[in-house]
Amino acid sequence: MKFKLTSLEKKWVLYDVGNSAFTMMVSTIFPIYFNYLAGNAGISDVDYLAYWGYATSVCTLLVAILGPTLGAVADTKNFKKIIFCIAMGVGVLGCIVLGFLSSWIWFLGVFVLAKTGYSASLIFYDAMLTDVTEPDRMDTVSSHGYAWGYIGSCIPFVASLVIVLGAGNIGISMQMSMILAFLITALWWLCSSIPLLRAYRQKYFSEAGEHVIRNSFLRLGHTFREISKEKHIFIFLLAFFFYIDGVYTVIDMATAYGQALGLDSTGLLLALLVTQIVAFPSVLIFSRIIKNVNPEKIITICIAAYFCIAVYAYWLDTQLDFWILAVLVGMFQGTIQALSRSYFAKIIPAEKSGEYFGLYDICGKGASVVGTALVSFLSQLTGNINMGVSALSVMFLIGLLLFRTAAKLNAQKQV
After folding, report:
1. Cα–chain-centroid distance for residue 128?
2. Which region, left, alpha or beta, applies to residue 78 given φ > 0 means left and ψ of -120 to 50 means alpha?
3. d(CA 215, CA 272)
4. Could you read off the pLDDT of 312-357 as tens digits, one per residue?
5. Which residue, 83, 99, 92, is CA-closest to 113?
6. DSSP bridge partners of 206
7. Which domains are delineated in the chain?
8. Strands (E), 137-198
9. Could you tell me the pTM of the whole model?
């Protein structure tokens, strides 16, 4: 029987379509424009990659610190949508402002603000999964979110790409082309959010009481104690920390990596567009397979595939190598993110989804502090960019071993 999304599920998926446009810009045009600004300031390629990595690490560190606290507050009745709106608004506004900046240091500063808002919004968006669908539909709904997010993000990206690459032919400056590109992305993100904001209702929550903030901290402390006892959740989060670290580092630094290797900018952008296009059918195919295959097996396959991708990156030095890498990433990127999200949503208490997804985000986007910093540090230390990127294979290997342990513990708990 063909799977059909409900109206609310479609609106939830639509936010993935909107925010993915920002992700696509951060992975492609943002670092290229920063490279342009940094080049004008006389910054070397190795330092450019390092500064971009450090800025990304600061973003994820901020969200890792704020996430659990905001998540605990969001679990209070009627608070999840409010905090989600604030975080999204910061991201959208920051995206618009970025186009007007010509100083590389100011660009990095506002980028940190916009990326932090974007990442924070995803904590509450992911936590909404328990409110918009049922446990037996979570894997497929989550997969549809990533799948349509990948293909939907291509629309504003292609429009922005045409403007940026064709600025000279259109008769506008680089600065004006960037203003238009960032504006298109921000408006796409904002407009895609409106249907969810209008329809969403928080189904699972804690009562507000008289002291919302204090009670939120008390619940958060209780949650930390709970997780230490629930070994299947604790080990999964630890595994997730390691394997998703590499995934997000690849997403955040792919274009910066290619630029630092001296590869053609246009070719890099088109290769990353191919990643999005490949990811769309790949996620949907895996979402069908998962109906007959245990999700733990598919997540295991994805982690192992990323380990091989990281090892392959050590020898990457041509445009063709980068294209092959882009296709391979596209095959597994969306699936590992979608199934990790739904897997976690099914093993946690629904009424504490905000708190738990705040912790999930620490182990997710917060983990990429380690990945981006590791790539940046080793690149500067050795003077070899490939060495820094290939070091991520160790993170995937550790993540794989821990995930298999978590899967066994979860299976034992279900018996």
Report:
1. 16
2. left
3. 45
4. 877 777 777 778 888 888 889 889 988 998 888 888 877 777 667 7
5. 92
6. 76
7. 7-414 (1.20.1250.20)
8. none
9. 0.75
